[in-house]
Amino acid sequence: MGFLIRLAITAIALWITTLIVPGVDVGGRTGGNTALTLLAVALIFGVVNAVLKPVIKVVGCVFYLLTLGLFALVVNALLFLLTDWIARQLDLPFRVEGFWPAFWGAIVMAVVTWLISVAVPDSLADR
């Protein structure tokens, strides 16, 4: 149950990101198609972050220390671009139009996901 709630939170954050950040777009002929696309991209985003982010943190530890953590913003943008690339390979109508939209999109995603997670009771998210 917790996995589905976290997936829904990520999908909602992704939808809000597409509304706020120019250059991050999701398409779909209907609202249902758009919702399914958002869920699929949220799943891809979650898998990419779960698999690659810990490896990058270990390998790039020196960069994180030298930049006082600002390197994390670049890493998040690159992971957002990787999510876009995987979505394109799967023919999902999700597009990120370059580094800067990915940079700002990753920041908005992180903030919105955090805000929604704060609003959702832990008893629901941890099931």
Tell me about this structure.
The protein starts with a helix and ends with a helix. The chain has six helices and two strands; from the N terminus they run H-E-H-H-H-E-H-H. The chain is mainly alpha-helical and 127 residues long.
Summary tags:
mainly alpha; two-stranded antiparallel ribbon; 6 helices; 2 strands
State Rg: 15 Å
How many angstroms does the end-to-end distance come to?
Answer: 5 Å
Order of helices and strands: HEHHHEHH
The major sheet is characterized as: 2 strands, antiparallel
Compact description:
The chain is mainly alpha-helical. It has helices at 2-20, 31-59, 61-66, 71-89, 99-119, 122-125, and strands spanning 24-26, 94-96.
How would the blueprint of this fold be written?
Blueprint: H1 2-20, E1 24-26, H2 31-59, H3 61-66, H4 71-89, E2 94-96, H5 99-119, H6 122-125
